[in-house]
Amino acid sequence: MGKSKAAPLDQAVADYLGSFALLADHADYIAINVSSPNTPDLRKLQDEERLRELLAALSAANRDRAVQPGKTKKPLLLKIAPDLSFRQIDDVLGAIAEFGLDGVIATNTTLERPGSFARITQTGGLSGPPLRRRSSEIINYIARATNGRLPIIGVGGINDAASAGEKLDAGATLVQVYTGMIFRGPFFALDVARALSDRQRFC
Ligand SMILES: Cc1cc2nc3c(=O)[nH]c(=O)nc-3n(C[C@H](O)[C@H](O)[C@H](O)COP(=O)(O)O)c2cc1C
Question: What number is the average pLDDT over the span 115-138?
């Protein structure tokens, strides 16, 4: 879930809390998206102070909900941008640890136009192969910084089993796909899952 376009930054926390209240009963886990480049000001929620305020509010709401009969805490995972510096990622990891989040999703789309993709002139977040290397780098950084203890969902440029395996090798626990599914169709997830399970069997 992410801040609605209509909600100004100073009302972002209330907006996320409203979404959490509506969605928590239906979710297996909650992705806290502070990294979509297409919603005005959303990425500013990655700044340390704002992020701490948001994570404090959501983890408290999660705890409060879980005391109700029949309810349990939902795993909360933070989805981050690939355009953060390692220093900024350190701050984000500090906030994740402070509020006991369950994991991180790395990464969302990029505003960079790396290497030969500099020719792309459209604005907005870029997904798919141009993102693959940076997202793996960030996954690897996070896995090392947390000694492999923080669950990481790896995402960015997965378009076959090899690129999915690269995310696992970098330290991801799970993988997520978006663009690959668009280009490869509905059986893409099954094909990748089968190939990864073979890979594990023969390793
Ligand atoms: C058209 C489009 C819409 C997206 N919408 C969301 C979104 O609503 N929430 C979110 O967390 N990520 C969103 N993403 C980011 C993807 O989930 C994913 O993190 C990113 O595209 C990188 O993975 P990929 O290379 O497999 O596409 C979107 C990506 C695209 C291309």
Answer: 92
